[in-house]
Specification:
The protein is an all-alpha fold. The protein has helices at residues 5-26, 31-57, 70-77. The longest helix has 27 residues, at 31-57. The radius of gyration is 23 Å and the shape is elongated.
Length: 87
Amino acid sequence: MQIKLKHIIVLVVVASLGAIIYGFSLGEADSQIANKCIGFGTVGLFLVAMPLFLIKESKTRKVKDYMLTEENILKMQGKLPKKPENQ
């Protein structure tokens, strides 16, 4: 059985959201453990799940297409690229 990166990301997100919800449900009863659960859930979402998702989704992308070069700016504006005079 092959575990895909997609399944790992979903597992981390669900675990993080579960930790955050559990931390809020503890409330004032045990505030130190509640704060730790909320903190670990937040770290899981932003420092584990988000980078994994970005790595997974950026494998098929070309970085050159997203760079703000003069040619890409002209394409976004709908203008034709300038051709040199000697051609």
